[in-house]
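Page header: ASSEMBLY MODEL / two components / 465 residues total.
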Amino acid sequence: MTSYIPLTYGDLLLASMFLTMNALFSILLSLRLERQLIVSALRMVTQLFVVGLVLKTVFSLSSPWLTLLVAAVMVTFAGREIWARQHRRLSGVWGIGLGGGSMLFAGTVVTVFALTTQIQPTPWWSPQFALPLFGMILGNTMTGVSLGLDTLHTALHSERAAIEARLLLGSTRWQAVSPAHQRALRSGFTPIINSMAATGVVSLPGMMTGQILSGVDPQEAVKYQILITLLIGGATGLGVLAATFASVWRLTDNRERLRLDRLAAVKR
Amino acid sequence: MAALRIEQLATKLIGPISVDIAAGECLAVMGQSGAGKSLLLRAIVDLDPNTGNVVVGGRTREAMPANEWRKLVALVPAESGWWADRVGDHFPAGSDATQLIGRLGLAGSMEWEVGRLSTGERQRLSFARALCRKPQALLVDEPTASLDDHATGLVEDLIRGCCGEGMAVLLVTHDRRQAERMAKRVLRMSDGRINVP
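Prediction written out in full:
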C-alpha cells in the first residue's frame, strides 16, 4: 500500500493553473465569467483554510459544547441555504426555521445513530468523527430538502384552483394537496436515488477518493463510503419527509383551507 | 328543505354581513368587480379565514369539520380547478351523475379529457360535480359567464330545479336581467358590504 503523500502550497498553486486559464479564456471570449471564477475560487480557498483551522482547534480542545456549537452553526447555514434556494418561501421565521429544523432532526438522528452504533469513537461525540459525518449528511440532505420544498411551494401556488376545487368538494387538506405533496417528495428523493445508482460506475465519491489518495486500503475506503452513502440516503429521506409534511401543515389549517397567505411574496 | 342563515360574517376584506335565504329561495347578489362578491361566497364555505357564523338547515358551521360543511353547502366558483385528466375522475366513485350531466347537455362527457373541454363545458361540469354530492345549499359565482343562450337556459333551469327541491341558492351575477329572472330578491354589494335596499 502506498503511504500518504503530503502536498506543498506550491502544489496547490500549480493546480490553480487550469482555473487561471479558464479565466483568461473568459476574457478573450468576452464571457464576463472571470470575476466570478476568481472570486468563487478565492472564497473556496479561504473558507477551507478557515474551516481547517477551526476544526484543528475544535479537535484539539475536544469539548462537547464546542462540538455542539459548531454543529449548530452548520445547521443554521444549511437552513439559510435551503431558504435561499427556494423560489417561493414560507414567510417570516418559518422560512429558515422549517428547513433548518428538518435538517436538525434528520441530521442529528442519523449522525447520532451512526456514531453510537457503527463508528463508535471514544467519546461517541468526538468532534473528529461527529463533525465531518454531520457535515456530509447535512450537505447532501440540504439538496433534497430544498428541492422538495421548492417543488411543493411552486406546485401549491400554481395548482391552487385544483386544490381548492377538491377542498370545496369535501376533501381534507391532506387529500387535496396529495398530488403536489407526492411530486415534492419524488423531487426531494431523486438526487440521492440518482447519486446512489451512479456511484462507483459513473462517479467515484470524493470521500472515498480522498481516503484512497491518503493511503487507505480501497476496500476499507469502499466500506466507509457505503456507510456514508446509506446514512446520507436515510437522512435525505427523513429530512424531505419532515420538511414537506411540516410545510403542508403550515400552508393549510385545521379548517381544511389552503393558506398561501403564509408564503412570502416573490420579489422580481 | 334547508334555509341558509349568515350572521355577522366578516373577513379582512369584507363584512360584517348578515343575510337569510329561505329554503327554496334564490337570492341574487350583484355588484362591480372587486366589490367582494366572490370573497363572500368563499367565506360562507370557510375557504378563507373569517369570523361570524353560518347555519344551514339548523346545523351550525362551527360545530362540524370544514370538509363536512362543504358537502352541505356547495360552492361552484367562476373558474373551477381540475386535478385529473379524465372528467369522470372528478365525480365521487359510485355516484350517478349521468342524468345530471345529460340535463346540462353534456351526455357522454364522463370519458372526455379535461384538457379538451371548452370554458363553457368546464363551467357546466363543475356545476354537475358539485350537485351530485347532494348539498343543502348552493352558492354559484357567475355560472353562465362563458355560456351561449342555450347553455345558459339549461343552467338556469337546473338552478330553478335546485330551488324546487328546497335548496337555498345564493347567485352572484353581473347580469341584471339574469338576476331578475332567477331571484325575487336582488342585493347589491360594494366595498365588501351588502347595501341594504
